[in-house]
């Protein structure tokens, strides 16, 4: 088990299940996802494209499109010991809570910023929606833009297209901090940035966290991003969490064959091992294989993995793993 953090929880998600429906098919994009984030901590959701990471984020933020339904589960933000269940609040109240308690830096900051508005206007609009006065908002924006290492005055009057990708990402992060939320959801925070810019943005996120105690839920397919920022890592496969543990455990010594495969398919600066991609493809979410969803791609799969339901997330070697083979090995007292 993961040692419970001494810090209070700021986000508590339990049993989240989300479906997309259209005339032709039903896609269960997230199944039974539980996670919690403590103050000042970072949890990373990792997994290939289509594993359900963005859907989980949008459900947590109450921003799912109309074609999606939350079938079950709860999402609570817990500012100062209060518990606000986001899935049960009226839309208007939810909009107020967004930014104030939970904010979002969406994937691709260019699409999150309105191209015909100067950056300053973005801050003012967010402030207006939450009854933060114009002056106070501008003063706070100046501080935040400086805190993310931008030139506040120049940025304030710029249009999004005048800024580089890294700068826009910094603006999106500053904007997310405007109402001092307890937690920020970061969807692929460094995708499409060059390596040096990626590192600089991640360093800035860590600085902000150290300075303010903000928590992050970071969504990434990039294990090096998870390694750089996360305290805890959750691997998702076909909509389910399949491994959960501290970042050191999961990224240095993965137990689930899928996490191990992800790690082998990632080039690493500290390893000379050849990069080896996971064979095959993720399954179609509207037509999952029986048993463990990963079994068609898994070198360890046996009969049990191919039939019945998906394996449960069980404690194994100080973390939790959803894999029959790992559970057997741990039960037999084999090497972790
Ligand atoms: N608006 C939508 N309508 C129908 N299906 C959707 C919609 N958005 C996502 N999906 C489906 O839900 C599944 C999970 O997608 P999601 O975007 O949550 O994954 P992801 O892990 O964030 O992937 P990526 O790394 O590509 O962003 C996919 O099969 C996707 O096709
Ligand atoms: Ni995504």
Automatic annotation (TrEMBL):
GO biological processes: peptide transport
Subcellular location as annotated: Cell membrane
Matches recorded under Gene3D superfamilies: P-loop containing nucleotide triphosphate hydrolases (3.40.50.300)
GO CC aspect terms: plasma membrane
SMART domains linked to this entry: AAA
Domain of life from the UniProt record: Bacteria
GO molecular function: ABC-type nickel transporter activity; ATP binding; ATP hydrolysis activity
Membrane-spanning ranges: none
Similarity annotation: Belongs to the ABC transporter superfamily.
The protein's assembly and partners: The complex is composed of two ATP-binding proteins (NikD and NikE), two transmembrane proteins (NikB and NikC) and a solute-binding protein (NikA).
Name of protein: Nickel import system ATP-binding protein NikD
The organism of origin for this protein: Jiangella anatolica
């Amino acid at each position: 088990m993961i040692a419970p953090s001494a810090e209070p929880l700021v986000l508590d998600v339990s049993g989240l299940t989300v479906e997309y429906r259209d005339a032709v098919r039903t896609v269960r994009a997230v199944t039974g996802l539980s996670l919690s984030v403590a103050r000042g901590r970072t949890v990373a959701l990792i997994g290939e494209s289509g594993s359900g990471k963005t859907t989980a984020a949008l459900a947590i933020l109450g921003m799912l499109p109309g074609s999606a339904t939350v079938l079950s589960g709860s999402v609570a933000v817990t500012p100062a010991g209060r518990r606000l269940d986001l899935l049960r609040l009226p839309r208007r109240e939810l909009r107020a809570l967004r930014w104030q308690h939970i904010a979002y830096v969406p994937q691709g900051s260019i699409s999150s910023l309105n191209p015909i508005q100067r950056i300053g206007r973005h801050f003012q609009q967010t402030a207006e929606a939450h009854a933060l006065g114009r002056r106070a908002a501008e003063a706070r924006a100046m501080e935040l833009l400086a805190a993310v290492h931008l030139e506040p005055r120049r940025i304030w009057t710029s249009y999004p297209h005048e800024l580089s990708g890294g700068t826009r990402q910094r603006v999106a992060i500053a904007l997310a901090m405007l109402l001092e939320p307890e937690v920020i959801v970061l969807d692929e925070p460094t995708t499409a940035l060059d390596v040096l810019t990626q590192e600089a943005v991640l360093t800035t996120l860590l600085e902000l966290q150290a300075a303010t105690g903000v928590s992050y839920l970071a969504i990434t397919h990039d294990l090096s991003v998870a390694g750089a920022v996360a305290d805890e890592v959750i691997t998702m496969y076909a909509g389910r969490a399949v491994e959960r543990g501290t970042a050191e455990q999961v990224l240095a010594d993965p137990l689930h064959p899928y996490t191990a495969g992800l790690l082998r398919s990632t080039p690493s600066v500290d390893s000379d091992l050849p990069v080896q991609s996971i064979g095959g493809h993720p399954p179609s979410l509207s037509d999952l294989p029986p048993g463990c969803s990963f079994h068609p791609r898994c070198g360890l799969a046996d009969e049990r993995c191919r039939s019945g339901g998906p394996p449960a997330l069980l404690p194994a070697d100080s973390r939790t793993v959803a894999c029959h083979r790992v559970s057997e090995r741990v039960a037999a007292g084999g090497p972790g």
